[in-house]
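Example record used in the benchmark description.
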Amino acid sequence: MTKANITLQLDADVIRQARVLAARRGTSVSALVAHELDAVVAREARYDDARRRALDLLSAARPRGGRQWARADLYADRLDRHGG
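Model output (structure tokens):
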């Protein structure tokens, strides 16, 4: 995989804390940021794939009668039994 550089502007306090965190983890700020961005991109790709598959399944589903229920229809039996 070809690597390329990017420039980020962050609050100085965030950079300081990132350096401390990276040191605790035995890595660099660059590696820490790269790892987190890789995770975000992978998560987004999985979401997009799952959404695409779900939409494909929904579009391929057969209609199941097409009844449009009204609230009164759903509670008519209960109202009849309880004198409503």
